[in-house]
Amino acid sequence: MSERPAAIDAPSAGAFEDMLRTVEELDTPEGYKAELIRGKIVVSPWSKLRYKKVMKSLRLQLEPHAPEGYDVDVAPFLFTFPHSERGFGPDLHVADESAFEAEGRHADGAALSLVAELTSASTKDADWLDKLDTYGRVVPVYLVLDMQVGEITAFWDPSPKGYRSRTTVTFGTSLHVPPPFDFGLDTSEFAAGADVES
């Protein structure tokens, strides 16, 4: 397996449910995830090891502010968005715990209250384009940690046309995470995991 995302052949009809079944049946190598992006099944590596500290800091800060009955985790779950025929495995998610009581191997994207993606050179386009468009119609808050630039952007106020609000700060600056979280996120530890060249 390479470090770059790779599209694989999907059912010829391209039906969303058929593609979901194919993803469920895939024997994805350890350390890789399969997502449905732009009508294709894309297999890509999970985040770099040095991103773990960033994800842990983010998770620990979000947990006390998450809505009651919501789980904050970095576990590799696929969340589906049937109306846009997408299925994403975010780097970090905050989701209603009831979403994990269903049968199968993927959860309903409508259960999410926040997702966070840490960009890499190979996934940056999907994080900033396809995922932003899809999350922006359903998920209350989307955090993009641009690990190549050293910035974090919060998007909120989803609508049928995408997010209506956004703010960006440099790593090391406090970021206000909008409701339902409504707190200042300390990003001082994020720069250590970034890919920014000095």
Structural class: alpha+beta
Mean pLDDT: 85
What is Rg? 16 Å
Describe the global form. globular
Task: Please work out how many helical segments DSSP would assign.
Answer: 4
Low-confidence stretches: 1-13
Strand content: 25-35%
Largest sheet: 6 strands, mixed
Run of helices and strands: EHEEHEEEEEEHHEEEEE
Strand order of the largest sheet: 4-7-9-10-11-12
Helix content: 10-25%
Number of strands: 14
* Straight-line distance between termini: 30 Å
Quaternary state reads single chain
Q: Nutshell version of this structure?
A:
With 198 residues, the protein is an alpha+beta fold. The protein has helices spanning 16-25, 52-62, 124-128, 130-135; strands at residues 6-8, 32-37, 40-45, 70-73, 78-81, 86-88, 92-96, 106-108, 112-118, 141-146, 151-156, 165-170, 175-177, 183-185.
